[in-house]
Structure formats: structure tokens, C-alpha cells
Design a protein that fits this description.
Number of domains: 1
Protein name: SRPBCC family protein
Strand order of the largest sheet: 1-7-6-5-4-3-2
CATH architecture: 2-Layer Sandwich
CATH class: Alpha Beta
CATH topology: Alpha-D-Glucose-1,6-Bisphosphate, Chain A, domain 4
Number of helices: 4
Helix content: 25-40%
Oligomer: single chain
Length: about 160
């Protein structure tokens, strides 16, 4: 796989399994994420597992949009990842959280790989209001990881 388009890492004073539980639950992830605001399971799914899908609700200011995510990795305490497509089925991004034990807790790395075709970037920028998605996602990842750290450490 190519290098991520945007990535960030943070040390969290909580076990990898605890932090994994937060990011692998789309409802809990919405509580800490910057643009992602909620979900609805689709296709009979009701829990995070490889192949499960959820419709994500996203927001940035007054702008709102929806995506479809398919979970590709669900290894508790190690890795959680999902591929995101637009409502029209076009590829948007891959998101992944990797966990490794460290100190009294773990290190979490959040990464994103851009998947949109070049022509689709202007369309999605109009919908989301973000013209420099790489820069925005780097900032979003930093904010999300900081909130994830607070949530995971508060649960101890």
C-alpha cells in the first residue's frame, strides 16, 4: 500500500483493546471525530466486523453529506480500517487505526489514503467546503486523536 495521504500518532494511557473499542464502534468514533457525526448500520450489520457496512453522516459547519463505509480490518487491539465510498459508489478514502502497546498504554496511528478520482475532487469539495482535503484531514486527524486520548484516558 502507498504511504498515507494524511496520518497522525498519539500515545494514550489506556490498553490497546480499550482504545480499539472506541474507534471500532462507529457511534463512539463519532463522539471524537472532527467531521464524522454518526452512522446507521446497513445490510443487516449491527456490529463492527470485516465486511459490515455503515452509512456515515458527516458535517462541516452548515454542510452535511453522507458516505458508505465497508469495514476491511477488525483485529481487536491491533487494527481497525474501513473503505469509504460516496453515495454514488465512487471511492473516497481509506481510514485505518493501528495500535501498538507502549509504556502504560498504547500508541495509536490514524491514517487516511485518498481514493477519489481527480475529477471527483472538485465535486466533493463543493459539497464539503474543503478544497485542500490533505491539509484538512491532517488537522482533522490531530483533533480526533486528541479527543480519542481524552476519552480513552477518562474511561480508566
Amino acid at each position: 500500500m502507498n504511504a498515507p495521504t494524511a496520518t497522525g500518532r498519539i500515545e494514550i494511557d489506556a490498553a490497546p483493546e480499550v482504545v480499539y473499542a472506541l474507534v471500532s464502534d462507529p457511534g463512539s468514533l463519532a463522539d471524537v471525530a472532527e467531521e464524522y457525526a454518526g452512522h446507521e448500520w446497513v445490510g443487516g450489520a449491527s456490529a463492527p466486523a470485516v465486511g459490515a457496512q455503515f452509512r456515515g453522516r458527516n458535517r462541516r459547519g452548515l454542510r452535511r453529506w453522507s458516505t458508505l463505509s465497508t469495514i476491511t480490518d477488525a483485529d481487536p487491539g491491533r487494527c481497525f480500517g474501513f473503505e469509504v465510498t460516496s453515495v454514488a459508489g465512487l471511492p473516497v478514502a481509506r481510514w485505518q487505526y493501528d495500535f501498538e502497546p507502549g509504556g502504560d498504554g498504547c500508541v495509536v496511528v490514524e491514517s487516511m489514503w485518498e481514493r477519489r478520482p481527480a475529477w471527483f475532487k472538485a465535486v466533493t469539495a463543493t459539497v464539503t467546503g474543503v478544497w485542500d482535503r490533505d491539509e484538512a484531514n491532517a488537522a482533522n486527524i490531530a483533533a480526533t486523536l486528541a479527543r480519542l486520548k481524552r476519552a480513552a484516558e477518562a474511561s480508566r
